[in-house]
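Take a look at the protein record below and tell me what you see:
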Amino acid sequence: MGSKTCGKGHQKGVTGDHAVLFLAVFAAASWIFAANVRRQHEAPHGFHPTVSLIMARKCAITGKGPRSGNNVSHANNRTKRWFHPNLVSKRIWVDELGRHVRLKVSTKTLKAIDRDGLLRTLKKNGLQLKDVV
């Protein structure tokens, strides 16, 4: 009762030694792959993930954000879509601080800031300067 062959002298199946070797190689490869994946997602020194990685499509002053809706065809077929606010990232001079402040605001809010000033626009929206700086 020997091992089964396929007619050419090759063994069918995997012997115990081959299985152990395969598992050892597979375990080492998966450990190296996992280490590389971890390394890709590590943040560099001095990098704050909540500030740079999370890029909200939201106005810093009014809170306008994306809204869902529908594309409506001539045949009245409706498919879901997103309406994104028209946001711009601007440096705005603040006399009280004596420096520029970088804000991501909607163009409508930017027009209000040009018209009324930053502090009055913040006050209309129930915010203070410390909330956006």
